[in-house]
Design brief:
The protein folds into three domains: about 180 residues, ATP-grasp fold, B domain (D-amino Acid Aminotransferase, Chain A, domain 1), CATH 3.30.470.20; about 40 residues, no CATH class; about 80 residues, 2-Layer Sandwich (Alpha-Beta Plaits). About 30% of the residues lie in helices and about 25% in strands. It contains eight helices and 16 strands. The strands form four sheets. An eight-stranded antiparallel sheet has the order 11-10-7-8-9-12-16-14, with helices on both faces. About 40% of the residues are buried.
Length: about 300
Amino acid sequence: MPVAYTGALENRPRLVRVLADRHTLLGNDESALAVVRSPQVWTELLEAHGFPVLPVCRQLPSGANPREWLEKPIASGGGRSIRWASGERASRRCFFQKHKPGPSWGAVFLAGPCKVRLVGVTRQWLGGELRGTHPYQYAGSSGPVMLDDCHQRGLEARASAVAAAGGLRGWFGIDLVGEPGEWYVVEINPRYPASLEVLELASGKTWWADHVAAFLEDRDPGPNTTAATSGAAAKRIVYAPTSLTGQAVLAALEQTASTFGVSAADLPHGEVSFQPGAPMMTLLCRGSSREDVEATISEAAEYLIRRVLKCG
């Protein structure tokens, strides 16, 4: 039976190996994960291809300012455990990465046997910009971001280098930081990336068939169609600002949806209770431009939080 994995299952390579042994795996296998989930390996790989990189290490260089370095878990997921460096040596199963100020982006790719195609790019929100979240926690995306040919080729060149070295197939994501054209790779996610949901909502298209074809038909992806997308979409994960009940969250959502015309996913059961900082749901919206959906989703999320505090 064919199976695909999502979430942060790439952090469980032995489990991925079991899936591959028992099923037809429509996803990147253990050998690919060894490359793309090792910050040292993919950083050195990109540097060898001439791309600018953010230095990574287990021990800070002599005289380094800890406030210029982030400590990250190797088995990362969603950015929740990222923090400023607090010592010269990284904690167990963590590493240091040089901090780069600037906006965050998510690029989505499809890889076949010979070609890598950029599906699209989204602007990502991190927790430091939003209420109820940890500083580097993933909190949502908007897109697509329109790129010129030069920027698109630059991203595809980075992705092609990584895909060739790791043997990546199907969809995968690369998180970036910096201004367009001056991007630095932050992380590689070798499965369905969170940004792809936004690109699918904006375009009304799913890339599942292309993903499957890369594995079962050994087929390269077709041309990029993001530039032809007429709309835009956004999603925002709303985190609990304080202890709340599921009933209060659902009551607040009903009023929010009718006021702003947004939809919701990952809905809680009424009897669930939330601790501060826990994800409550995901808000989704579609519109004519990225600016419009960003404004709508941000206003809706703030309205929801105000309503849930009043109801809870």
